[in-house]
């Protein structure tokens, strides 16, 4: 694709999209004065410090500092690259993203480079490797044996095709020989984890050999990694791709793309441990299962699921390891629970897994088991009560010590209140009395954050007002060029003013977007949420006054400079004239 997304197209997407609607579809917002608030989706908290402004089309968290416009939110919340965030926004309006070849300097704040060729090469390479593995089911000498294995596991050709199941040949260099010709391509195969290098011998060879291959896809359906399962009892039973530039297992779910494809509306998601479990469940009509790519489900994976469903059922073995994994999942999920969201836990009999159970019971009876899953609150208290002796004061005190830190991580709401009431009942106290033990975010913390954001020079204040209210620039039409002023930041201020003058109707969110990817962007981002405490009716006059103060400060500094030079040296004729004029102005 060409290298740049046109700025006018980015501006159009920003102007089309209401940040309130976009965020509310992922994080439930509540009206609070001029802003909308919620518990921050980017860090665990129980009191809302995440504010969204409809006027400015910006969000900001006073707890962790996350802030930005609609594009920034998609990049942070959905973990998208800039081009992918643009594609996501464009998709909301059924728009194709245009690209243009341009001689414009890609470092310019007017443009944002989408040169992601390296990543695109990775995706393309992984697709080619996946195709190769699928072809090996039919072409390899062991292919018939692998197909027989899959059939014995109850899998049809249609399901194998839907999930892209393939076979990695029982050879050390099959993939390397086919795709690894040349240093650069070999490096790409190493980067994506398809090849592996022995550090002692420096030998490079295929990571996956003689395994049934399960491609792992991201939310857009791109192959980002693989899971390989042995055909016999050798170990390791499963071998996964390592962390790579395009695969981060704590943020992905095996089968999530396929579940989205099979279900227009995901009413719930069943989380299992193995690839074969997901595929076997789909074979038996349960197309809403995913695998967590690890023993416990991470916060990132839970967030991903809650963006698409309101109910998650985590299925584990009923042994000690399974229950420990479930407990880790519970801890990861507590900060993410909000009213209307449910997490349940399902434990299978010893020696059974979802694959074997669904083949024994069939779809209807297996779903009946899912329906009986243990609610999070019951699993929470069952686990805690098993660790204490409730017939003694010491035991109840220990329960409080174990439970209160967990309750403290749950966001304010009905669910937290129910947990508090249940805990209070076990402790034999009033629910309200627990509040003094549960640490609340100190009001002064938010105030201190705001105070810190208010500090800054006069130039910083002018930049903050410009980025937040670009229309104010119209009020200083007759002001001279500020970049001639030798005060830190005036060159940046002038560039912002020039950008507004070039596009007088530009919004705050659009103006900031022009600086994404530049060194100045982080500072400008902070200034978009600067709390100026200026009445709206007085904004224009305050802005003019601030610009005048900058000019006056410059003149004062220049007067001091010329006065000093006149004492130690001789002024030029131009400097004498300037000095006289400055003295006259002082009077």
Task: Give the tags.
single chain, alpha+beta, DNA Primase, Chain A, DNA primase DNAg catalytic core, N-terminal domain, Dna Topoisomerase Vi A Subunit, Chain: A, domain 2, 5-stranded mixed sheet, 47% helix, 11% strand, globular
Tell me, what is the CATH class of the largest domain? Mainly Alpha
Shape label: globular
User: How many H/I helical runs?
Assistant: 24
What is the level-2 CATH architecture name of the largest domain?
Orthogonal Bundle
What percent of the residues sit in helical stretches (DSSP H or I)? 40-55%
Gyration radius, in Å = 30 Å
Structural class: alpha+beta
Q: How many structural domains?
A: 5
Terminal residue distance:
63 Å
CATH topology of the largest domain: DNAb Helicase, Chain A
Full CATH superfamily name of the largest domain = DNAb Helicase, Chain A
Structure description:
By secondary structure, this protein is of the alpha+beta class. It has five domains: 7-92, Alpha-Beta Complex (DNA Primase, Chain A), CATH 3.90.580; 118-247, Alpha-Beta Complex (DNA primase DNAg catalytic core, N-terminal domain); 256-380, Dna Topoisomerase Vi A Subunit, Chain: A, domain 2, CATH 3.40.1360.10; 387-437, Pheromone ER-1 (Up-down Bundle); 450-586, DNAb Helicase, Chain A. The protein contains 24 helices and 16 strands. The strands form four sheets. The chain has a five-stranded antiparallel beta sheet, with helices on one face. Strands 13-12-14-15-16 form a five-stranded mixed beta sheet, with helices on both faces. A hairpin with a 7-residue loop joins β10 (223-230) and β11 (238-240). It is globular. Residues 104-116 and 439-456 have low confidence and may be disordered.
């Amino acid at each position: 694709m060409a290298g740049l997304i046109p700025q006018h197209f980015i501006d159009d997407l920003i102007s089309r999209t209401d940040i309130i609607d976009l965020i509310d579809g992922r994080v439930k917002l509540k009206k609070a004065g001029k802003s909308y608030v919620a518990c921050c989706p980017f860090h665990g908290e129980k009191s809302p410090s995440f504010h969204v402004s409809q006027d400015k089309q910006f969000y900001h968290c006073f707890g962790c500092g996350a802030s930005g416009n609609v594009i920034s939110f998609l990049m942070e919340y959905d973990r998208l690259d800039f081009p992918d965030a643009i594609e996501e926004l464009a998709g909301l309006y059924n728009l194709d993203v245009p690209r243009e070849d341009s001689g414009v300097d890609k470092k310019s704040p007017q443009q944002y480079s989408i040169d992601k060729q390296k990543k695109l090469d990775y995706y393309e390479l992984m697709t080619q490797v996946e195709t190769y593995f699928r072809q090996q089911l039919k072409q390899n000498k062991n292919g018939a044996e692998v197909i027989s294995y899959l059939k014995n596991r109850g899998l049809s050709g249609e399901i194998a095709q839907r999930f892209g199941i393939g076979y990695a040949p029982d050879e050390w260099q099959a993939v390397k020989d086919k795709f690894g010709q040349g240093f650069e391509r070999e490096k790409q195969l190493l980067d994506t984890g398809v090849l592996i290098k022995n550090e002692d011998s420096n030998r490079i060879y295929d990571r996956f050999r003689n395994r049934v291959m399960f491609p792992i896809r991201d939310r857009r359906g791109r192959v980002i990694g693989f899971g390989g399962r042995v055909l016999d009892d050798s170990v390791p039973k499963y071998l996964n791709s390592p962390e790579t530039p395009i695969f981060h297992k704590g943020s992905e779910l095996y089968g999530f793309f396929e579940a989205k494809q099979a279900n227009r509306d995901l009413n719930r998601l069943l989380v299992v441990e193995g690839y074969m479990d997901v595929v076997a469940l789909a074979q038996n009509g349960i197309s809403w299962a995913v695998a967590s790519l690890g023993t416990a489900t991470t916060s990132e994976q839970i967030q991903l699921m809650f963006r698409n469903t309101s109910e998650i059922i985590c299925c584990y073995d009923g042994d000690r390891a399974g229950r420990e994994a479930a407990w880790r999942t519970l801890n990861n999920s507590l900060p993410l629970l909000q009213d209307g969201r449910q997490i349940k836990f399902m434990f299978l009999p010893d020696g059974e897994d979802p694959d074997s159970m669904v083949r024994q019971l069939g779809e209807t009876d297996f779903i009946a088991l899912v329906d009986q899953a243990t609610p999070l609150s019951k699993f929470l208290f069952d686990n805690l009560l098993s660790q204490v002796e409730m017939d003694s004061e010491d035991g109840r005190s220990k329960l409080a010590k174990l439970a209160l830190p967990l309750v403290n991580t749950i966001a304010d709401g009905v669910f937290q209140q129910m947990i508090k009431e249940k805990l209070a009942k076990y402790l034999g106290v009033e629910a309200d009395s627990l509040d003094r033990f549960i640490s609340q975010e100190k009001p002064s913390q938010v105030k201190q954050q705001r105070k810190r954001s208010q500090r800054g020079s006069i130039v910083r204040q002018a930049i903050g007002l410009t980025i937040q209210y670009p229309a104010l620039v119209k009020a200083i039409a007759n002001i001279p060029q500020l970049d001639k002023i030798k005060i830190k930041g005036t060159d940046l201020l002038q560039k912002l003013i020039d950008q507004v003058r070039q596009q007088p109707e530009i919004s705050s969110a659009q103006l900031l977007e022009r600086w994404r990817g530049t060194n100045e962007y982080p500072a400008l981002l902070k200034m978009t949420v600067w709390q100026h405490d200026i009445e709206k009716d007085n904004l224009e006059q305050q802005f003019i006054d601030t610009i005048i103060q900058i000019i006056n400060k410059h003149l004062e500094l220049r007067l001091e400079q010329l006065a000093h030079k006149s004492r130690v040296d001789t002024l030029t004729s131009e400097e004498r004239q300037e000095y006289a004029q400055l003295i006259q102005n002082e009077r």
